[in-house]
Write a structure and sequence with these properties.
By secondary structure, the chain is of the alpha/beta class. About 30% of the residues lie in helices and about 10% in strands. Strands 1, 5, 6, 7, 8, 9, 10, 11 and 12 form a nine-stranded mixed β-sheet that branches.
Length: about 425
C-alpha cells in the first residue's frame, strides 16, 4: 500500500514533469512532503538555533588563542598570534585566551556576556578525512557511517506530535546539508528573494488547475497536502521576509556568507516559525601560508566575525530567542608545517552567541600544548565532546527532552555553556 509520504514524493516528481521544479527551489524536497504541517501565524516567535559550520577545519588555536600557554608559541614560530598588548596581538578574554584580532567585531558580545566558547572540543573519532569528519559531526554519530539522517533533522522528527511551520528547518545552502537531511521536511535555498518571487510567479497561474490535479488524485490525502504546499508558499510571501532590510545599523560583509546570515535574520524577524537554521562558510583548510595576525586565515576570520556581529545586531531584541553555535569538522596541528601553514588536527574551538549563554567564559578543560600533552604528538587533545555542547543547547534552549534519539548511544556530560 502506497503511504502518504511516498505518494507525496511521487507528487514532487510530477511537479518536475510540469516544468515547475525550478520555480519552487527547496519546496519540492521539503514543503511538498509536509502533509501534516500547518502554516504558522504571522508574528509568532519561536526559539531558534542557528548552526554555522566552518567547512575545511578552522584553526581553533589561532581563532581562540591560548596566549598563556608557552607551548603555543614554541610550536608556531611564524604563524602564532602575538600576546595581548603587542602589535597584532590577541584580544584578551580572560588572561588565558584571546580572540584573533580580526575578530574584533565579536569582542563587544563577549564583554556583554552574550558570547561564550568551548576550547578543546570536537569529535572523538580520530579521522583526518574532511569527508568522514564532516559526516560524523553532521550525523551526530562519530565513527558510524550508516546513520541515515542528520542530528538537526532528528530534532525536527522528535517534534512530530506538534503542528510546526513548514519553515521550521531552513538551510541557506544550494542543497540540503547532511545535518538537516532526513524524514522531517526542511527547506534549502540560497536566495530568499528569488524563492519568493519565483514561487509567486508560478503559484498564481497554476493554483486552480494544479490544485485540482492534486485534489482529483485523492481529496483526503494528496489534495490536502497540495493545498498546504501552496498555503506555505503564500504565507512566506505574505510575511514579507524577502523585503526586510537590516535593522539597527547592521552591516553584513559582501558575498554568500553574509547574504546567508542576512536572510536567516530576515526569516526570524518575519516570524515564519524558524526553529533550526543552518549556514556554512568555507576556505578554512590552511595548509599553506596561513598567516598570523594578517594573511589568509585573518581574511577569512574577518568576514566570519563581521557576519556574526551583523546578524546579532540586526536581530535586536529578538536575540532573546536565538542562539548561534559554530563548529568545524576538526582542528589543525599544534605545530606549523614547512609551508607556514597547518595540517589536519583534532581538538578545536566552538563559539556560542545568545542572551542565555553563560558568557564571558571559556568553558571546557584545557589540556595544554606541551609535547607530552598533544594527541598523537601533534594535535590539541579533545576534552569536550561536541555532542555534550549541542545536547545542552538543545535541552536548555529548545526544550528538547531525552537526547537518545538525537545522539544515539551517547551520554552527554555537563559543560555549562548555558545558564540554567
Amino acid at each position: 500500500m502506497t503511504t502518504r509520504r511516498i505518494f507525496l514524493k511521487q507528487g514532487g516528481l510530477a511537479l518536475a514533469g510540469l516544468g515547475l521544479a525550478g520555480a519552487l527551489p527547496g519546496v519540492l524536497q521539503s514543503v511538498a512532503q509536509a502533509a501534516t504541517v500547518a502554516a504558522p501565524r504571522a508574528g509568532t516567535r519561536a526559539k531558534t538555533l542557528i548552526v554555522l559550520f566552518q567547512r575545511g577545519a578552522v584553526d581553533g588555536l589561532n581563532l581562540l588563542v591560548p596566549h598563556a600557554d608557552p607551548g603555543y608559541y614554541a610550536a608556531r614560530s611564524s604563524i602564532a598570534v602575538a600576546r595581548p598588548g603587542q602589535a597584532g596581538g590577541a584580544l584578551d578574554l580572560d588572561g588565558r585566551f584571546g580572540l584573533h584580532p580580526a575578530l574584533a567585531p565579536l569582542l563587544p558580545f563577549w564583554q556583554a556576556q552574550r558570547m561564550t566558547a568551548v576550547h578543546a572540543a570536537g569529535s572523538p573519532d580520530n579521522t583526518r578525512s574532511h569527508f568522514d569528519a564532516q559526516d560524523y559531526m553532521e550525523s551526530g554519530t562519530p565513527g558510524v557511517k550508516s546513520t541515515p539522517d542528520g542530528w538537526l533533522n532528528r530534532v525536527l522528527q522528535a517534534r512530530t506530535g506538534a503542528k510546526v511551520s513548514p519553515f521550521a528547518g531552513v538551510a541557506m545552502t544550494a542543497q540540503a546539508p547532511r545535518m538537516l537531511s532526513g524524514h522531517a521536511p526542511i527547506v534549502a535555498m540560497t536566495s530568499l528573494e528569488r524563492f519568493a518571487v519565483q514561487a509567486g510567479a508560478y503559484t498564481a497561474p497554476v493554483a486552480g488547475g494544479f490544485e485540482q490535479l492534486w485534489q482529483g488524485a485523492d481529496a483526503g490525502a494528496l489534495g490536502e497536502a497540495g493545498q498546504e504546499t501552496f498555503e506555505a508558499v503564500q504565507f512566506l510571501q505574505r510575511s514579507g521576509a524577502a523585503h526586510r532590510a537590516p535593522d539597527n545599523g547592521a552591516s553584513y560583509p559582501p558575498g554568500e556568507f553574509g547574504n546567508s546570515l542576512r536572510q536567516l535574520a530576515q526569516l526570524i524577524k518575519a516570524g515564519v516559525g524558524l526553529q533550526l537554521g543552518f549556514t556554512e562558510s568555507g576556505g578554512w583548510d590552511t595548509h599553506i601560508n596561513q598567516g598570523g595576525a594578517d594573511g589568509q586565515l585573518a581574511n577569512r576570520l574577518r568576514e566570519f566575525g563581521q557576519g556574526i556581529a551583523a546578524f546579532l545586531t540586526d536581530l535586536g531584541p529578538q536575540r532573546d530567542d536565538v542562539l548561534l553555535v559554530t563548529m568545524s569538522e576538526f582542528g589543525r596541528t599544534a605545530h606549523e608545517n614547512g609551508s607556514r601553514g597547518t595540517d589536519h588536527g583534532h581538538g578545536n574551538a566552538m563559539l556560542l552567541f545568545g542572551n542565555r549563554v553563560d558568557g564571558g567564559k571559556v568553558h571546557g578543560r584545557w589540556p595544554g600544548l606541551s609535547e607530552s600533552q598533544l594527541n598523537e604528538g601533534r594535535d590539541l587533545v579533545i576534552t569536550t565532546d561536541f555532542r555534550s555542547v549541542l545536547g545542552e543547547v538543545l535541552q536548555r534552549h529548545l526544550g528538547a527532552g531525552a537526547l537518545d534519539s538525537i545522539f544515539p548511544g551517547f551520554h552527554p556530560e555537563p559543560v555549562g555553556v548555558l545558564r540554567a
